[in-house]
Amino acid sequence: MRNRVKSIISKLSSLLVIVTVVLTGCGTVGNDTVNEFAWGEMLRLCRPICQLTYEDCKQVKSLREALDLSEKKGFVSSETRKKLREADPWWNPYVFERKSADDQIIFRLISQGENGVFENGGGDDITCEITIPKRGNGTLTLIHKNKVISRR
């Protein structure tokens, strides 16, 4: 009985923390919490795109096209694709950039961050850079405040 009461108290404590975060705003919990959530959302969007080939990416001009092609190729299920938002956690649309060179295509997906101001990947912007080489596997680099957070 005591173990069950302790378990219930523990769950209620966790729920209280979540409710406090929601009611007071994530910023009061600390920007790391907000940023980690935003990083995770961005990685969910970018991972399927990173699996595309150079030939696949030649015609891709937008985030929607990249995600649709990822679904068509089977890198993301249609159920998961429906859940992927094309806006960041602050409801700003992602900025999608495409650069191509002879041997690679680079997609940059940029969240304008909490301040909602596009700073070309600087400031509080969060950038996911996907490099698709002509040969070999794509790489994914997550950048925040001009620091590499993750590279895969």
Question: How does this model look, in words?
Answer:
It is a single chain. With 152 residues, the chain is α+β, with helices and mostly antiparallel strands. The chain is 41% helix and 22% strand. It is built from five helices and five strands, in the order H-H-H-H-H-E-E-E-E-E. The protein has helices at 2-24, 31-50, 54-57, 63-72, 78-83; strands spanning 95-100, 104-111, 126-133, 139-144, 147-151. The chain has a five-stranded antiparallel β-sheet, covered by helices on one side. Strand 4 and strand 5 form a beta hairpin. The longest helix has 23 residues, at 2-24. It is globular, with a radius of gyration of 19 Å. The model is unreliable at 12-30 (pLDDT under 50).
Short description:
This protein has 152 residues and is an alpha+beta fold.
Element-by-element helix/strand order: HHHHHEEEEE
In the predicted model, the low-confidence regions spanning at least 5 consecutive residues are 12-30
SS elements, strand count: 5
Largest sheet: 5 strands, antiparallel
